[in-house]
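Narrative of accomplishments. A recurring question from our advisory board has been how the design workflow behaves on a single, concrete structure rather than in aggregate. To address it, we present the structure tokens for one chain from the evaluation set, followed by the sequence designed for it. No filtering or post-editing was applied between the two.
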């Protein structure tokens, strides 16, 4: 994994409540600032995670749930590997509104710390990049990811180094 400069991200890591997180990301997504910061920070999470998912998932038609889809960076990376069936969910409507049109078949505003309104064994894969970090998505979300993933399906996610343990 690439070494990251987290100095500029500290305000994100100090957020405590879901409302604080939502407000921060809604403001951050305005005027494409979020995407610009991802480029400036050389954020490679979506690229690296899509690469790993592609290594193990051979069915390019599988339906993928992008949990915490943000502006669609993971979907764009998966598309490079010829995956094309995505549902995205994010806490920030502002970020969802910036997702490129026709990238995802379905986009919903969701708090991933609560039960996901999807039937069991629905998705062939779940991607969750950049949300398991300070003040964001809690570990219980993994239970939901397992519940909504088909038997034999893949769950591919990142965890912030600082909260890993």
């Amino acid at each position: 994994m690439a070494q990251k400069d987290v100095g500029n991200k500290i305000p994100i890591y100090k957020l405590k409540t879901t409302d604080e997180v939502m407000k921060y990301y809604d403001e951050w997504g305005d005027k494409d600032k979020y995407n610009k910061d991802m480029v400036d920070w050389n954020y490679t999470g979506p690229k690296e995670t899509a690469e790993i998912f592609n290594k193990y998932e051979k069915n390019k038609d599988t339906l993928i749930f992008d949990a915490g889809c943000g502006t669609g960076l993971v979907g764009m990376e998966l598309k490079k590997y010829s995956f094309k069936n995505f549902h995205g969910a994010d806490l920030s409507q502002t970020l969802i509104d910036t997702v490129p049109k026709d990238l995802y078949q379905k986009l919903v505003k969701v708090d991933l710390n609560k039960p996901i309104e999807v039937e069991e064994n629905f998705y062939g894969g779940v991607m969750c990049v950049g949300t398991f970090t300070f003040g964001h998505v809690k570990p219980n979300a993994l239970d939901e990811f397992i519940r909504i993933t088909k038997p034999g399906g893949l769950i591919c996610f990142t965890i912030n180094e600082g909260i890993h343990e």
